[in-house]
Amino acid sequence: MIAILWIFDALLVVTLFWLAWMSLAAADLFKAIVLFIAFGLLMALAWARRQAPDIALAEAAIGAGLTGALLLSTLARISSSSGTASAENDGHSGGRP
């Protein structure tokens, strides 16, 4: 049973490093945010494995949940405002020839 837990912990660490790297290297912001949320959830699992349930709950609620929701909301606002700005600039030259 101990060997299985060691393998699980090793796989968890490798996955955390992979998710961290992929979220930093992602060119698409939505993909980076989703990978960040997945990283936060797996980090909460890692804290639970370290027998720190209070930190695990805080990581899941704040790190993955609240921060992920705020990042997705910000991305939606950025996308809608940049779409509005490009639509306004498409047909208008601002009075200049």
Q: Which range does the strand content fall in?
A: under 5%
- Kindly, what is the distance between the CA atoms of the first and last residues, rounded to a whole number of angstroms? 76 Å
The SS-based structural class is: mainly alpha
Helix content: over 70%
Poorly predicted segments:
none
- Using only C-alpha atoms, the radius of gyration works out to 20 Å
Largest sheet: none
How many independent structural domains? 1
Global geometry: elongated
Number of helices: 3
Average pLDDT figure: 89
Write the layout of secondary structure elements.
Blueprint: H1 2-25, H2 29-49, H3 53-90
What does this structure look like?
- Helix 1 runs antiparallel to helix 2 (29-49) and helix 2 (29-49) packs antiparallel against helix 3 (53-90).
- This protein has one domain.
- The longest helix is centred in the C-terminal third of the chain and has 38 residues, at 53-90.
- It is mainly alpha-helical and 97 residues long.
- The protein has helices at 2-25, 29-49, 53-90.
Question: Descriptors for this entry?
Answer:
mainly alpha, 3 helices
Compact overview of the structure:
With 97 residues, the chain is an all-alpha fold. The protein contains three helices and no strands.
